[in-house]
């Protein structure tokens, strides 16, 4: 029997995570069954459990982590030099708006984090990494553009980064749950927050 390459295994694993994500987006992490996930992949149960021996709990963790990684990559990709807080914040929101599937995955992942320790830990690590990114970029901008000392910039950004994260989180919640959500008006709000340091 020919040996299966690691690349093949990785691609198959990504395909399973993608199919499982579709199921979770439709029915939530708790609502989607392994039977539905297996059917969505078009693979046998044995093939699925070969990649995810712990079954649904492992798939939930993998799907949640994949979504969180996508958000961090998006935020990191939007960083440009010289750094501009408004352009970065609005750019991240625009990219999220262009990926409603990702925004919905974030929302159900946050909900699952309240009851699943593994997802909670992944979300905590993600938020720490995202806040570190915000801290680093905004503090550097405060030194360069506002003339703050490194110590003052660090103190300032400790407060300000919380506001920035709340803008991102608020967009996800409101865009997914609020009828008639006004995206452009929310962008104006984001610009106002980003301009506080000007």
Characterization of this structure:
Keywords: DNA-binding. It comes from Kocuria soli. Pfam families: TetR_N. This is TetR/AcrR family transcriptional regulator. 26% of the residues are buried. The chain has one domain: Tetracycline Repressor, domain 2. Helix 6 packs across helix 8 and helix 7 packs across helix 8. With 198 residues, it is mostly helical. The protein is built from nine helices and no strands.
Keywords:
198 residues; mainly alpha; Tetracycline Repressor, domain 2; elongated
In short:
The chain is 81% helix and 0% strand. With 198 residues, the chain is mostly helical. It has a single domain, classed as Orthogonal Bundle (Tetracycline Repressor, domain 2), CATH 1.10.357.
Going by helix content, strand content and strand pairing, the class is: mainly alpha
CATH homology-level superfamily: Tetracycline Repressor, domain 2
Gross morphology is elongated
**Low-pLDDT regions:** none
Output the radius of gyration.
20 Å
Mean pLDDT: 93
CATH architectural category: Orthogonal Bundle
Layout: helices, strands, pairs:
Elements (H helix, E strand, L loop, with lengths): L5 H26 L2 H8 L3 H7 L4 H22 L7 H13 L2 H14 L3 H30 L3 H28 L5 H12 L4
Helix pairs in contact: 1-2, 1-4, 1-6, 4-6, 4-7, 5-8, 5-9, 6-7, 6-8, 7-8, 8-9
């Amino acid at each position: 029997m020919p040996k299966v390459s690691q690349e093949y295994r990785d691609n198959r694993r990504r395909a399973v995570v993608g199919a499982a994500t579709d199921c979770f987006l439709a029915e939530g992490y708790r609502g989607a069954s392994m039977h539905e996930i297996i059917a969505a992949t078009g693979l046998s149960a044995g093939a699925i459990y070969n990649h995810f021996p712990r079954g649904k709990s492992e798939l939930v963790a993998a799907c949640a982590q994949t979504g969180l990684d996508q958000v961090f990559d998006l935020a990191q990709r939007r960083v440009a030099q010289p750094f501009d807080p408004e352009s970065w914040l609005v750019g991240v929101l625009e990219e999220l708006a262009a990926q409603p599937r990702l925004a919905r995955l974030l929302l159900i992942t946050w909900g699952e984090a309240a009851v699943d320790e593994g997802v909670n830990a992944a979300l905590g690590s993600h938020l720490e990494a995202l806040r570190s990114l915000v801290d680093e970029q905004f503090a550097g901008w405060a030194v360069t553009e506002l003339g703050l000392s490194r110590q003052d910039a660090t103190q300032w950004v400790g407060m300000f980064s919380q506001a920035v994260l709340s803008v991102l989180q608020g967009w996800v919640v409101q865009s997914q749950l609020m009828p008639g959500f006004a995206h452009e008006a929310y962008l104006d709000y984001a610009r106002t927050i980003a301009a506080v340091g000007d």
